[in-house]
Amino acid sequence: MKLTLEIWRQAGPTHEGAFETVEVPDAVPQMSILELLDHVNNRLIEENKEPFAFASDCREGICGTCGLMVNGRPHGAEQNKPACQQRLVGYNDGDHIKLEPMRSAAYPVIKDMVVDRSALERVMEKGGYVSINAGTAPDADTLHMNHETAELALDHAACIGCGACVAACPNGAAHLFTGSKLVHLSLMPLGKEERGKRARQMVDELETNFGHCSLYGECADVCPAGIPLTAVSAVTKERARAAFRGKDD
């Protein structure tokens, strides 16, 4: 299968970038987007040319490292799949594919398709933890939690922090990411002591680095973990709860 790729090339954060056209005459439908880039880079290395920089790690849809834009859409054409799981089976011989870094003001480009997503980490640093008593581990039945609540918490804990929700949002909002963390931690029996503090600090950091929620749901459409759009409401709900209960909560 022959494909024409337009791949973003940018030497560094302070340099201007541009698309570079690459012809791939021997792409295979079973290739993932990342394997396609590997294939291109192997050829460039053989020709003593600089390969394209892009991020990846586990390539199993778990780590969230492999975020990039494919034809203007985070990760690729298929819904709720990371780039490492997006295959070329949906493309035809002669198709054009545009590959570029995730586009958001909160994600400065480091090089080529590698971006700095530490703004998401700063949100987590403000409240992504729980208080526990140090010592031996408690018995399994010490803290009671019903099955439905545990499943709901796990559904929101599935967020892999890839940041696709931000790139998909026209306002560059990270409410789906932050909301998923707030829901997860608010449902767990541990960490109740800092629930209000967590909400205030995480939402403040969210609003410092990201835009306002557009309410259109583009974020849930591309989320590889399938985080439900209802997680967005937790940002307002948890902040309102914290304001009502006061600073001691």
Keywords:
single chain; 249 residues; alpha+beta; Ubiquitin-like (UB roll); Fumarate Reductase Iron-sulfur Protein, Chain B, domain 2; 2 domains; five-stranded mixed beta sheet; two-stranded antiparallel sheet; 8 helices; 7 strands; 35% helix; elongated; iron; 2Fe-2S; 2 iron, 2 sulfur cluster binding
Explain this structure to me?
- Belongs to the succinate dehydrogenase/fumarate reductase iron-sulfur protein family.
- Its EC number is 1.3.5.1.
- Pfam families: Fer2_3, Fer4_7.
- One of its GO terms (biological process) is tricarboxylic acid cycle.
- The chain has 249 residues and is of the alpha+beta class.
- The chain folds into 2 domains: 3-111, Beta-grasp domain (Ubiquitin-like (UB roll), Roll), CATH 3.10.20.30; 118-245, Orthogonal Bundle (Fumarate Reductase Iron-sulfur Protein, Chain B, domain 2).
- Helix content is 35%, strand content 11%.
- The protein is built from 8 helices and 7 strands.
- The strands form 2 sheets. The chain has a 5-stranded mixed sheet. A two-stranded antiparallel sheet has the order 6-7.
- A hairpin with a 2-residue loop joins strand 6 and strand 7 (114-115).
